[in-house]
Amino acid sequence: QVQLEESGGGLVQAGDSLRLTCLSTGRSVSTSALGWFRQSPGKEHEFITAINFNGENTYYADSVKGRFTISRDNARNAMYLQMSSLTPEDTATYFCAARRPWSGSWLGSGREYDYWGHGTQVTVSS
Q: How far is 109 from 95, CA to CA, in rounded Å?
């Protein structure tokens, strides 16, 4: 079974950068599309970015485009989210997630993810 673990969250100042890591400690996710989601009080669960199995295609929600960069290292069974120019609106619990391989379009709507980490908290102060 795929087991995902996020790390790298913390408290930062507005304008700072932060790098989140997602590791698969179970089965390999090298053939799976991966994504990052976030949830904060008063806001919808947001699908913010995704990457296909080999890293050649990426997607970014408008809210993070130009500031966040998703990447993966299949040799390490890892995915990363590099965040820059952080604002208080980026405060949320961030979750990494994986789709089952060969389950359809690599991107989809964001509702096709079957495996989830437990989340890491990112808090951005003014």
A: 16
